[in-house]
Design goal:
The protein is mainly beta. It has three helices and 21 strands. 9% of the residues lie in helices and 40% in strands. Strands 1, 2, 5, 8 and 21 form a five-stranded mixed β-sheet that branches.
Amino acid sequence: MKKIYKLLTIFSILLIAGCDMVEVKDEANISQITISVRNLIPAADSLEYVLWLSYVDIDRTVYRFVSQLQPSANGSLDISLDASFTNLHTAQKVVVSLEKTALMDSVKPKGPSILAGTFQGNDAPVTLNSAAGDFTESTAKYSLSTPTDGAGVNETSGIWFVDSLGRTGGPIAGLKLPTLSTGWKYFAWVETGAEKLPVGAFTSITSADDRADYSDTQAPGYSAPGEDFLLNAPSGVSFPLDLKGLKVYITLQPSVKTEVEPFFVRVFEATIPSDAVSGPSYNMTKNTVIPSGTAKIKLDI
């Protein structure tokens, strides 16, 4: 009777899981998940990448911890990990989160997801779009202007993510970006030599960002992220800063990263033309070198 029950159990698992996901062996049960990722830069000392499996149970998401991950210096990760048959068999999604080492536990992610994917059979593409936001239709434009010190002065020393500066009624938003998943925000930067100057963090494209470190106070800025580089120059940088020829980029910044420095995921970037002037809008280029990969599960019984 026990033998019949075991055979029926195995037969049921095969029907549910699908023959392409399951290998029946006489040896010990070893189920695995294999994950291959590119462009995932190693985490800072206080942070960890963590691999999770998840499934929805009625009205809640259940997470199963798999392992911490350590990509190589060039951003590559190729690893196969043993995992519970039950955890792999019930998995609907795979998630890679970014966790603070000191706060990490094995119950559920506390930090933001940097990669995620949904299993179709035994395979799942893992992408930034599935984790943070879908950038397929996103675009970015900026204009040079210094609204905070009045009109017509130092106009190539300010950058604002607006379009159509000369429009009656004021400029319109220069960014078309997705609403980010919990734990992420956008952050804009200007790079001059070795200095990376923060423009500010933002989640809304039609409101000011969270900083005004270098702007003047004579007049308000635009209702958009941006900065005038006029006051409070950091050591080694001269203000007013002529932005022509400098690099500008927008990064995704995780909430677990508290240092004021760019996170490695750049969604848009540009070099401001050397002949740029105030008035026209300039396009930014969408960055295609972002983390992505695949996950594959193998169930052995």
